[in-house]
Amino acid sequence: MDLKNELQKIVGAGNVLDSPEILEEYSTDNGIYPPGMPTVVVKAGKSEDVAKVINLANKNSTPVIPVSSGVHFQGCTIPYQGGIVLDLSNLNKILEIDPPNRRVRIEPGVTWGQITDELAKENIRVISPLLPHADRSVITDYLEREAPVVPKYEFAEPLMTYEIVWPNGEVFRTGSASVPGYPDSPAKGTNPAGPGLDFYRLPQGAQGTMGVINWANLKLEYLPKINKIFFMPFEDINAAIEPIYKIPRVHIGQEFFLLNHVDLALILAKQWPDDYDRLSDILPSWTLILTISGPPRRPEERIEYEKEALFDLKKQYFQDMPILEALPGVPGGGRELIHMLRKPWPKEEVYWKNRLSGACQSLFFIARPEDAPSFYEKVVDEAPKYGYPLEDLGVYLQPIEQSRVCHLEFNMFYDPDDPIEREKIRIMNRELAQDLLDMGAIFTRPYGDLADMVYEKATSYTTALKRVKKMFDPNNIMNPGRLCF
Amino acid sequence: MGIPQEAYKAMEDIVGSQYITDDQVIAQAYVGRLGHGKDTGIDLDMNVPPAVIVLPRTTKEVQGILKIAHRYKINYVPASSFWISHCAPKRPDSLLLDLKRMNDLEIDEENMCAICGPGVIFSQLQEEAIKRGMYTTTPGGGSQVSVVANHINWGLSPLNYRNGVPGRRVLGGEWVLPDGELLRIGSMSTTDDPFWGEGPGPDLRGLLRGWIGWFGAMGVVTKLAVKLLPFHDEGLKPVGISPHTTLQFPEKKRIRWYNFVMPTRESLVECMYDIGKAEIAAALTKVPQQWRYIAKAGCREDFWEGWNTDEARNSINNIHICRVMLVGYASEEQLEYEERVLMDIMDSYGAKLGRTRQSDNSWIKNADSATMWMMTGAYTSVQVTVDTVDCGVKGGEGLAREKPAFTPPLMDDYGEPGWFQVSEIGHMGYIEFLQYWDPNPDQENLYKKDEWNYIKVPTLDAEWGMFNAFNIYASPMNLTGKAYGPECRKWFEKVKAEFDPDKLSNDPIPWDVDEYVDKVDWVNKEDYINRDWSKG
Fold it and tell me: Residues in domain FAD-binding PCMH-type (chain A) (predicted)?
């Protein structure tokens, strides 16, 4: 069978690409892992194409590597076993905006840049991760379990329902979108559970190994108009832990997270590199950042009682902790951060994580906030052994679900054009991950080198996962070589 | 016939002779005390006493028992608090695992979760959680039901307004698969700590539960961490003498009820949307008229005295009550702020604030659907839609129009379109459409209550495009399992074939309704077996 010819019949000749230049472009990403060459690149023009391409691939046991946007950092779109790169970036329609039911239905190619502007027209938003890349796919970010920057809700899952093409080519809708006749039905797809099994959980964290999403419903929240921002500086991460636990628990605030001086300077610097150099010197070692916002009704009164509650907590539990409305020495006091947090990183600027050296390897996992200091100490102890300068180590702690748990992220910056430095970071990333895993870090997104070490530890889970994967993908065509597949 | 003696002896060696029995007097008690689903056709015609009852204490004991069951091909039914009719065997010579001894409870206060054995009940957990400034959501099944079972099955509560259905709060744990092998899920996949729900890569909680769960048809969950939620720190004081007990709200303005009489059903729905958008409140629900009459009644006769009146008959379309709970999680000032916003919203709809007691009799600790049996002696929910509020209300109104054709034997509820409430702070709505009937077997056309439940409602749901959470266990897979997904039934079949190829774990669930309707003469099976359900 001529694969290219068959693919052309599905998507049209112009959407099947196999020139060496194009294949090379898709052979790598923005991360530390080496390239791998696809056989062919297919650009899906409509969602029906996806099922047809996967059907064809399944019949021929050809690997399919779904790619939703051009921005990938963890190597999971690199085709190490050849096959079809299925580029979904042209599936970029916002299919429905439903403000009464506070949901938006979008295709996988819709980016943060695109959706933020569109929703802002109606004073609504999808809560985003911290300053996402403007060209990242919204659906991919939440399928891949990025942590929302607002931990105030009891649940941390903005994704509700989706239409998925399983690896056998069957099209399936999850949750309450599974009703006959959807979307022209009374059920609008706001309930993720079911039908039958909780299918919505299976493609999450799967790195494209469980199928391809045609569209998804995500939760919408109001876009606050009146806001206040507070900065709580610390010299020692240990001192930040109690406020991290206590503040979201009383249901106050919107965005809430902890950054060390490196990450915060990268975000706040305007003139590069002068601002960065100055800010990284004067910023406190750690800054806990909280925004308080007014909802559409009685916004000032809401801000008032939340502010009062914040200061009551301080009085009761952490009297020595300063609560500042502006960061000393920072132009504008850092208050523009409020507006930055409601948008993706500006497209015209170098992505904040790439500003320092050109690229960044993020090592992240789920942890209890109380354990964050010991994980941090471990990284601080180990990083110099790899020749990595501690003054360039970025740290980000994102509370999740009212600080029940946290996403802890170490950012290691490197020059992507220096193969030796890149390899050094790769080794450091892998060995640090092993140390942290041994200490109890929960890697729910084991990318690249981390997969083997995590699955070796998760023995019963790995066995069951392989059985499930076999059910859904008997020919192992979806992104083979990832995770434990 | 029972189970093979060798198997019995092997299990006795595992749990000790005091925790295993084949006494048929005791076995009879395991079919006669079920709650939801009692006196439905399946309960009456399929449920049978177990041959043997075994009460394990540990995960290891459960593993041993399931491995023996696997070796000797014994059908087994795991059950913890016996709330639902699936907790009784539907096959002769079955083994029943009574999990009540597995009641270890550990609270992780700092990280807001509770690690529960399947024998832990809500009463036990809620008491401990509230002491620590947290809460869980006691489901409609009551405070006596299992925390684990209700998180992995349904367990919806009026307090789900902020936090969604309990399946969203399932974390890590231990799950003994049908063949006795242990699967550790969530953070327990790589550590001994169950505080987080996602494991590495695809989330196997997706197999654990679904629309409403497996009801013991996929092995036994022996340990599960569930999220707890932050509450105000003033606590709630129990007062009164059982059974007339209540939780007294604190003097400080940290928790308050508000009952509003809305001018129309439409305004009741609209105000719910507005309250959700304003991100205020801790609970928000419509109060069905029947509940009011139940609440006023001391016994069944009292209820019927009140219900058999024109006032009750007219109340369905003329009285629309919205019940709201506000909590000052942060402070009294928060509650005062939310009260002002609530009044703004309610004033805009011309709502009238009624009187209500500032205590809790049923929602927080003692959720009590036992009173649902007060009216007729038999009850079940036939429609449990979770999607938007609007979707739920439309579904309830539609079913209310269809129900008279099945009344009697169903109780005449005067066209009540169901109980509805909001969850996930307005992102979802929830409606429950109830049916009551007199279980007296001498009634004419009593089968129609099953026709309504098993066939008519699921057919209407599929035709209308409604999402009924209960259908998977209350309708044929050949109907609902084809219509939704579509063809979600195929995945049930694949999962069962992979993990329980001998169908030993609570067979024939979830195909029990197919089996039941196959035997009755009042269903034209061709109507739904051959129908293309993809278009409803």
Answer: 33-223
From the list A179, A195, A471, the residue facing B465 with the nearest CB is A179
A454 touches chain B (CB under 8 A): yes
Cross-chain Cβ contact A180/B395 below 8 Å:
no
Partner residue opposite A308 with nearest CB, options B227, B230, B333: B333
Q: Do A187 and B466 touch (CB under 8 A)?
A: yes
Instruction: Break chain B down into helix, strand, coil percent, rounded to 5.
Output: 40, 20, 40
* Percent of chain A that is helix, strand, coil (3-state, to 5): 35, 20, 40
B527 sits in which H/E element: helix B525-529
Least confident of A468-472, B230-234, B352-356: B230-234
User: Least CA distance to B485: which residue of chain A?
Assistant: A178
- Would you state the pLDDT for residue A1? 61
CATH number at residue A56: 3.30.43.10
Q: Contacts of residue B390 in chain A, CB cutoff 8 Å?
A: 100-101, 186
Domains and CATH numbers, chain B: 5-98 (3.30.43.10), 105-230 (3.30.465.10), 238-462 (3.40.462.10), 477-535 (no CATH)
- A178 with B486: Cβ contact below 8 A: yes
Lowest mean pLDDT among A430-434, B21-25, B157-161: B157-161
Nearest to A298 among B182, B340, B464 (CB): B340
Residue of A nearest to B191 (CA): A440
Query: pLDDT tens digits, residue range A363-386?
Result: 999 999 999 999 999 999 999 999
CA separation for the pair B154, B156 (Å, rounded): 6
* In a shared domain, residues A82 and A109: no
Cα gap A289→A296, rounded to integer Å: 23
Which residue range is the domain that position A208 belongs to? 94-222
The 10s digit of each residue's pLDDT in A203-225 is 999 999 999 999 999 999 999 98
Q: How confident is the model at residue A245 (pLDDT cuts 50, 70, 90)?
A: very high
